[in-house]
Amino acid sequence: MTPLLLTDIERAVRSSWSAETCTPEFRSRWSPDNPARDQCGVTAMVLNDLLGGELIRGEVHVNGERVDYHWWNRLGVDLEIDLTREQFGPEEAVTGGVVIPRPPVAEWRRLREEYELLRDRVMEKLDRQQARICVDASCQSA
After folding, report:
1. CA–CA distance, 104 with 33 (Å, rounded to integer)
2. What is the model's pLDDT at position 114?
3. 7 has pLDDT over 70
4. Fewest CB atoms less than 10 Å from the CB: which of 52, 94, 118, 123?
5. Spatial contact of 94 and 88, defined as CB atoms under 8 Å apart
6. pLDDT tens, 59-70?
7. How far apart are CA 53 and CA 72, in angstroms?
8. pLDDT, the chain, mean
9. Is pLDDT at 78 greater than 50 in this prediction?
10. Domain boundaries, the chain
11. What is the torsional sign of CA 127, 37, 81, 55?
12. Dihedral angle at the C-alpha atoms of 24, 63, 88, 104, nearest 10 degrees?
């Protein structure tokens, strides 16, 4: 089987975002003009499913006051992946970054439906990508 590239994963994630996958309390402010807005938690969890590593949580500050949290991934010692960093405006600053242990999905109180929807969309797109790669390369199943 031909391995997927990080660009394949990024493309699948970005094309799977919608108002239905963002944080519910901020759903009304989601827009295709800023599709990464409020997608960080579910995106970090899906990337953690696919790539492993650690979940990182920082704080979002406006005028020195915390207004929200921001989530991203760390792989290894010095490699951080943040597919949603562009969601922030110039008045918003992400500070800190601490490792947060991943809770079992069964214990989630929020974002479970949004996470599952994003995960399913991403996996479907990656499965189709793998099938296309396999057809193009004339792969044979075992």
Report:
1. 33
2. 95
3. yes
4. 52
5. yes
6. 999 999 999 999
7. 10
8. 90
9. yes
10. 6-136
11. negative
12. -50
